[in-house]
Predict the 3D structure of the following.
Amino acid sequence: MASSSLSAKTTGLRTVPARLSRWRAIRKWIAGQEGWVFIFPWVVGFILLDLGPYIFALIISFLNWDVGRPPTYIGLRNYQAAFTDPLVGKSLWNTAFYTLFHVPGSTIIAFTVAGLLNQKVRGMPIWRTMYYIPSVTSGVGMALIWIWLFAPRGALNGMLGWFGIEGPRWLTSTTWAMPALIIMSFWGVGASMVIFLAGLQGVPQHLYEAAEVDGGGWWAKVRHVTIPMMTPYIFLSLILGVIGSFQVVTQALLMTGGGPDNATLFILLYIWIMGWNAFKMGYAASISWILFAIIFAATIVQFLGARRWVYYEYQEPG
Amino acid sequence: MGISSHMTRRRMLRIAGGLGVGVAGVAALAACGEAEPQIITKEVPVETTVIKEVPVETIVTRTEVKEVPVDRIVTQEKIVTQQVEVPVERVVTEIVERERVVEKVVTREVEVMVEAPMQKTPVRLEFSTDWGSGVRAATHKFMAEEYNKVNPHVTVDILIISGSGGSTAVGYAGILTNLLVAGSGPEVMSELWWNADLYNLDLQPHLERAGLTPADFWWHDGYLVDKDGVIRGVPYGVYVGAMMANLSLVEQFGVTIPDKDYSFDEFRELSAQMRDEEAGIWGLERQTGAWNQGWAERFSSEGAKWYDSASETSTASVATVPGGNSVEAFADWWKLAWEDGVAPTTDEVQATLESPANTSGSTNLFATGLIGMSGFGYNSGGGIKNRIGGRFDFHVFWPYQSPYTGLRGYHNETNNIVVNRAAEERGNAEEAAGLALFWHGDIMAPYLAEFQPVVPAAKSIWNSPFITEFSSGTDNFPDLAAEAEAVGQFRENWIRGTHAHPNWLEWFRLVLGKLGDRALTGGESPYQMMEELDAEGTEALRREI
């Protein structure tokens, strides 16, 4: 109290009791932690539902375990085997190939569709809903529809026939099965489209007006205003797209079973087959961790690269 | 002044956050603490355990338990003692609370115990299957109902996992093994062979009690006997492939279906005779899969084993019968569609199904009525009959003889019904084992023979008119099955079975990819695919994990 009085005399300011000041500091600290409140449900979910399985998968990756019998410790042999397994290589290549086409393709399509849906046209909510619905359709239902579309005499080949093109055997050809799954993947661009749409609506109008004043046309506005302002959204879409592509499995499981002759054997499908068909759980877990490392590395690379091309309107003062 | 003027968004968030943390904290504390047992006060009228050692040649004990509603158990026990000269070893009566009333009576003279009507403890059994539709699903429903009639205290729930109508669905084994490990697996399971020594009940005593031996069945140890030689399963049925012909087309083209012995050339010629391009009719449906006269049978006639576990070598191309040539036998099969044109290729199959000539609208090629001959599975005759729906008659006949060995090719399987060992702990092992054997008993075996979801494995019924008159030509079944059994090409030697290689799945995926997908479906060179299978198959078998 004495120090407070002294301070008041020298500064001439109203005295603040120390206890009150400490309380304010606590309140200020609490206010700074409110972010935790928002991520609290995720943290709880992560700890309860994810972290345990992650640790468990790490442990069993060093074991030979068929689920039914007691496991035996085999050190790094699962990892060594994975690095020499041609099907791990094949499935990683298939997955990378899919990613290479699916991610840019779906980003471009989603961006384009979002641009179209950002126009002032009558009945726009209906259009937006129509484009979004496929992304919330069940994977199984979608697979069944696409099996029909890709049938040798299905709708897709029927349409190609209009132009005199004899369509391939999409799902039973080692050449065409993977492109078929990539084409099908574009059906689900709705989620990215919604993100882009939100981003497009947040681009300040005055930037377009300024571009117009400078004589910029449609393309100049897209190139110098829309795309730079949308880079954070494109970046998010790429991050999620790459992670999602490396985990693609449903279509192959339902439509091709990884065939023909492993042409659509994705890495996650191979993990599943090794785990639940061959009951080589340790081996499956080791491939899972290799997959994790690949996705982690890809994400880091993307973040490092993002510094060069992603523009944030609000930047922390340097 | 309204609330909104004081309640800023930040304050609302803090309050909401605080509440959230509070609620979660309380929930977490509640979860961390030891669960307080819920106290239910309930009167249990009688709850006794009586264990009596009864001297031989003195006493007969009868236990009468009156019927009681599940929610109000009143158990009355009446012990009657009288002088009778019969050897009774020991009588143990245990009465456990509520609906799980378990009575165990161990005696050599069972007749003594059935003198008085006895109310047995209600038992629920789960029977798992992937037979989810048609005649196969109906069969299991019938089994459950009939077992309940014979054993009124037993209710059987059919647990259909992945109702794929008979194929061994990819998810079926995975789901069941999960359940088994978790201790909640069904008491009785069909089509599962996994760690049999750990999870399956020893069925030897039950077979013995029923007076049965493996010789009474279509039998192969692969899916029925564990590595220690203990019987852990009974067969599900007879899985063996013959040929069938559409009798309407046979009549239309004026051809004769060959008798037992005929060559591959005759077979090809017959297929060609039944080809009518204009009418969209094909002589043969040539399978792209393994069984029901597919590629597996082509290796079988040459004595080629799929692979050799001891040397870890892929041996599908190695014939063991003198003069045999499994590569050429497979190539011949391939050529029927891709060179000879007597059977449709993949595209042509699709075109046939969608052609106006397919007035039936069937999605099953043979059932369209546009195919002269096809493979016939004795494991699915009922399904075939249902799909044809009486639109034409069909004739079942023997497979052709290999031009290289003169032998017919077969691809056999027993499949299985197994009993979960956990049934012992649950106190319903007797009923569960009884259900497994019920499948082969006097009620189910004739039913299987009549409707043929699969031909029954019990040999005693193989000469039944149900089987021999199931369709034209099925009188060949007993001889055909005996010949196929003698050839011994059972798939459980190589897939999943007790003696299958640990990397069997890796090998099998290769054979499906090379021979099924690329050669037979895709039209790629059968010779090259066989070469690739040999090389990559051996590599897959020798991989360490």
